[in-house]
Amino acid sequence: MVNLIIDGKPIKVEEHTTILEAARQNGIDIPTLCFLKGVNAMGDCRMCIVEIEGRRGFVPSCIQTAEEGMVVRTNSPEILEARKIILDLILSNHHQDCLTCTRNGNCELQDLCVKFNVKKIEYKGEMTEHEIDDKSPAIVRDFNKCLLCRRCVATCKNVQKIGAIDCTERGFNSCVSTTYDSSLNDVDCTFCGQCIEACPCGALKEKEYTDDVWEKLKDPDVYTVVQTAPAVRVAIGEEFGMPIGTNAKGKMVTALKNIGFDKVFDTNTGADFTIMEEATEFVERLQNGGTLPMITSCSPGWVRFAEKNYPDLLGHLSSCKSPHQMFGAIIKSYFAQKYEIPAEKICVVSVMPCIAKKYEASREEMEVDGLRDVDYVITTRELARMIKQANIDFVNLEDGNFDDPMGEATGAGAIFGTTGGVMEAALRTAADVLEGKDLQKIEYEQVRGEKGIKEATLNIAGKELKIVVASGLANARKIMDQIKAGKADYHFVEIMACPGGCVVGGGQPIKNSKTRATVDVRKLRADALYSIDEASTIRKSHENPALKQIYKEFFGKPGEEKAHKYLHTHYTPKAKYNI
Question: Is 498 a residue of the active site?
Answer without folding.
Answer: no
